[in-house]
Amino acid sequence: MCGFVFFFFCFVFFLLLTDFSHFSAVFSEDDFYQVKACCSFNGPNFDKVEYILTTSFNKQKMMEYNSTRGNWIGFTDFSIVASYYWNRDPWDRLERLVEMRLMCYENINFIQTIGNLSTTPSMRLKSVKQTDGRHPAMLVCSAYNFYPKQIKITWLRNDQEVTEGVSNTDAIPVGELYYQFHSYLEYTPTSGEKISCMVEHVTLSEPRIIVWNDSLPEGEKNKIIVGLSGLILGLVIFISGFIYYKKKCKLGRSVISTTVNMQ
Ligand SMILES: *[C@@H]1O[C@H](CO)[C@@H](O)[C@H](O)[C@H]1NC(C)=O
Ligand SMILES: *[C@@H]1O[C@H](CO)[C@@H](O)[C@H](O)[C@H]1NC(C)=O
Ligand SMILES: *[C@@H]1O[C@H](CO)[C@@H](O)[C@H](O)[C@H]1NC(C)=O
């Protein structure tokens, strides 16, 4: 399901009826007639196109054409009658199809390009400050490399929303297109509670939930230990090299000094 990602654009045409008011008492200075034509793009590749044409008189919606439904409906007594006849007119149907092709299909590549730019956030939940007994710990839930920038992060304690101790950054632009976002939670750990961070973004068909786990998973522990051993090994090699270098220097110097002495 991809119902979340959705684009649309509209063209609006106004017709002020002031000119008519000189000839007829029916229209006043302020009357206007409006035609609004909208294309909406839906589906995984935005290839589900819908064309909606609405006509209004002074903000009162009068008629609506919906390409999915394939007909007009009227909202006032007069337009209900008019839509009955327009729906039986093959020329009207043809005109609507031509309009839809010109307005919506001519623009679909552009919409797809914008749509393809959207990327799902990659998420990370970590602790930035451990509790020291007096101060609470601080967790940060981060979203990286996502587009568009609208995003929502919610903290949950045992699946209930937490609002206290929460602070958010703005969506920070990264490079030309992508954004990152961080949400902080101050919290005092108590046993048996589950803290999680919930992320909502247009590219996710349902919210993604990351559960905070205080104990490092085994894989991470191993990585740290292997990394640490590597560091120590490197240090040992460095120190022994340094000692060797010093020794060699001393040796060289003594050779030089002996030569000097010989002259
Ligand atoms: C157009 O008609 C279809 C089918 O009846 C409906 O699902 C859709 O919501 C309508 N669109 C609008 C904008 O009303
Ligand atoms: C957008 O992505 C879809 C599928 O990934 C692809 O079929 C389509 O050609 C792309 N459109 C553009 C304009 O890049
Ligand atoms: C935390 O991670 C450890 C190791 O991966 C796992 O055994 C434990 O069940 C996890 N705890 C929770 C609450 O998910």
From TrEMBL:
Residues 1-28 form the signal peptide. It is found in: Membrane. GO terms for cellular component: MHC class II protein complex. Pfam families: C1-set. Coiled coil: none annotated. It comes from the Eukaryota. One of its GO terms (biological process) is antigen processing and presentation. It is a single-pass type I membrane protein. Residues 121-210 form the Ig-like domain. The chain crosses the membrane at residues 224-245. Keywords: Glycoprotein, Membrane, Signal, Transmembrane, Transmembrane helix. This is HLA class II histocompatibility antigen, DQ beta 1 chain-like.
